[in-house]
Structures are given as C-alpha cells and as structure tokens.
C-alpha cells in the first residue's frame, strides 16, 4: 500500500507542475480567410469578388515612393499602399466598397461621379510626394505667431485657423486645377 500512496503523491505532483506551467492564450477572434485564386493573388477579403469580379494582380510597387496608388487595371476599385524597403517594397492592397472607386486626387474611395476619371489617376500619383511634408506657409505662420506671443500681441484664434484652412484649401485647389489643364 505504500507503493500506491507514493505513486498517487508522485502523480499529483506531476499534475500540479503541469497545471502551473504558462499556457498560450487562445484567441477568441476568428482568423480572416484569404483565398488567393479568386482575387488574382492579392490578399483581399474573400468577399472582394462580390464587389468586383475578375480582379487582376498586375500592379507593382517597384520604384515607387511611399504612397497610395489607384489600380487602373481594376478600374480604380482596388488601390494599393506602397512602402519602399531596402530590398524591394511592401504592398498592401484594398478594395473600395461597392459602387465606389479610389479617387487618386483625394486618396479616398468616392462615388464614381464625384471622382476624377480613373484613366487620369496616374497624373495624380505625384501627390504622394506631399505625404509627410509641412506646408511652408504654415511654418511661417507658426513663426509669426511665436513672435506675436513673445510681445504679448495676440490674434484671435479663430482668425488664425481660418487663415490656415484657406491657404491649405487654395493650395489644393490650385494643384488640382493644374492637373486638369
């Protein structure tokens, strides 16, 4: 009987050790399923073919700067985000919701009638160069505000904001009109 008690104590000890070891937490969220054949090799959700049939994968981020790019081969319903790396580049692909296309001039999915023509999207790829850049007018306004604050001459905050908004909007409108010429 002592053997049985020794065996039971040993078994309980091993069970206690096994239960005290850290375990991998199991995710309760389902893993999205990506199916390659239906979307032409792009990693899009498997319901993407409900929005657009016959999705082609010909777009390349090779030699492109960081930015957002309309996929004209897919009639701008698909767009890509390119991120250059030291060896090659990384590409993320997205599909716009039904009845919308990617507007390269504004970097958002919009109704087709509110968007630029898809075939003109390549002209707007240059707008990616402005991502992350500060506008010189804003820098000058910030410096002017700093000088005025130092001499205790304060402008109303609303006026400053409206000046910034106007200068940004007028710059964007002038850039957009230069592309349409």
From TrEMBL:
The record's Pfam families line, in alphabetical order, gives: CBM_14
Among the entry's GO cellular component annotations, what is one? extracellular region
**Cleavable signal peptide:** 1-20
Region entry Disordered, spans: 135-154, 162-181
Keyword Translocase part of the UniProt annotation: no
Any idea which UniProt keywords this protein has?
A: Signal
The record's GO molecular-function terms, alphabetically, read: chitin binding
- Domain named Chitin-binding type-2: which ranges? 58-120
* Bilayer-crossing regions: none
Thylakoid listed as a keyword: no
What is the name of the protein in this document? Chitin-binding type-2 domain-containing protein
- Which organism's genome codes for this protein? Atta cephalotes
